[in-house]
Specification:
The protein is an alpha/beta fold. It has helices spanning about 5-20, 25-40, 50-65, 85-90, 100-105, 135-145, 160-165, 180-205, and strands at about 40-45, 75-80, 115-120, 150-155, 165-170. Strand 4 (about 150-155), helix 7 (about 160-165) and strand 5 form a beta-alpha-beta unit. It is globular, with a radius of gyration of 17 Å. The model has no long low-confidence stretch (mean pLDDT about 95).
Length: about 210
Amino acid sequence: MTTADEIATLWRNSADAFSRISGKDILSAAEVLHQVRVRNGVVLVAGNGGSSSTAAHFAADLTKFTRRTGWPHLRTVSLTNDVSCLTAWTNDEDPALALAHLAEPWLQGEYPVGTNAVVLFSVHGGSRDGLVSSNLVELASLARSHGTAVIAVTGFDGGALGDLADVHVNVEMDVEPYATPGVESLHLLVAHAICLAMRTTRSEER
């Protein structure tokens, strides 16, 4: 297969996966996040590797792009942006619990049950045996134990995060070497679609 063929296969597989992304799930995610905004809660966002940058991008868009006159400002925290604190927890404690430690202060105390949400981006969704992306799975489990909604944006079969999520947006690609770059690319489009849904549907209600 030539390089041009490889690129064409990536485009083709990504386009096919894009056509099968559930618009209903995107709207459900937008509704969960809107309720966080109405209740003056906090959205915690995280991912590993390339998904970490997607999470940071999404957090920025939730904060700014969804802002509309007459609606409360949506407070958003990208957990993997705090490198010093994240690496301190990773170095000194169980690395699988690092994100959970960062999230825990936001999931208790002044915030009633059902106020906040956690959004997790992961290509594979974390392995069900706990060997891959266990930090995201532990964070999702902690969130659920606090009555916090979990939104998972995944690829492949969704993995453990898909099993734990209240809302699961899945990009159905699983053939490498095309799946990982395709899923990561489409996750950003999913993130933008969620933000657009929050911006447009809620502006119609005002």
